[in-house]
Amino acid sequence: MADAALFEFLHTEMVAELWAHDPDPSPGGQKMSLSVLEGMGFRVGQALGERLPRETLAFREELDVLKFLCKDLWVAVFQKQMDSLRTNHQGTYVLQDNSFPLLVRMASGQQYLEEAPKFLAFTCGLLRGALSTLGIKSLVTASVAALPACKFQVVIQKS
């Protein structure tokens, strides 16, 4: 429990710090802050991926890797499994978390919906970094239609 609270507070402070000192409140400046958060998440995801057991690194199918992320990695970071994983079997996967821990505190009102993307950028990077360590190049985006649920779309980039 303490680890989850610590991570949540640290994440909230990272987001607040990037937005508090952003001299450019225009969409371009916000995009830069999102990019910084995504980059931090990518490096953390890579580090987590490097600490995985050797047998984990032997996945043969992309789907098996995504299942691992939805179950084991999500539990390690958020103490819960992802709620659903869908695929079109052509390299696009949609991961859904109906109660995403970093959005739960914001779920009290729809007025926070437009603030949600900045709380998802780090996690997009985290997923992309973990996939990178497992040998999969990807593009990860997130969307929120209703708080605290969110969807992460993972598009595998073929070499």
Automatic annotation (TrEMBL):
<comment type="similarity">
    <text>Belongs to the TRAPP small subunits family. BET3 subfamily.</text>
</comment>
<dbReference type="GO" id="GO:0005801">
    <property type="term" value="C:cis-Golgi network"/>
</dbReference>
<dbReference type="Pfam" id="PF04051">
    <property type="entry name" value="TRAPP"/>
</dbReference>
<dbReference type="GO" id="GO:0005783">
    <property type="term" value="C:endoplasmic reticulum"/>
</dbReference>
<dbReference type="GO" id="GO:0030008">
    <property type="term" value="C:TRAPP complex"/>
</dbReference>
<keyword id="KW-0931">ER-Golgi transport</keyword>
<dbReference type="InterPro" id="IPR037992">
    <property type="entry name" value="TRAPPC6/Trs33"/>
</dbReference>
<dbReference type="GO" id="GO:0005802">
    <property type="term" value="C:trans-Golgi network"/>
</dbReference>
<keyword id="KW-0597">Phosphoprotein</keyword>
<keyword id="KW-0333">Golgi apparatus</keyword>
<comment type="function">
    <text>May play a role in vesicular transport during the biogenesis of melanosomes.</text>
</comment>
<comment type="subunit">
    <text>Part of the multisubunit transport protein particle (TRAPP) complex. Heterodimer with TRAPPC3. The heterodimer TRAPPC3-TRAPPC6A interacts with TRAPPC2L. Interacts with TRAPPC2L.</text>
</comment>
<keyword id="KW-0813">Transport</keyword>
<dbReference type="InterPro" id="IPR024096">
    <property type="entry name" value="NO_sig/Golgi_transp_ligand-bd"/>
</dbReference>
<dbReference type="GO" id="GO:0006888">
    <property type="term" value="P:endoplasmic reticulum to Golgi vesicle-mediated transport"/>
</dbReference>
<keyword id="KW-0256">Endoplasmic reticulum</keyword>
<protein>
    <recommendedName>
        <fullName>Trafficking protein particle complex subunit 6A</fullName>
    </recommendedName>
</protein>
<dbReference type="InterPro" id="IPR007194">
    <property type="entry name" value="TRAPP_component"/>
</dbReference>
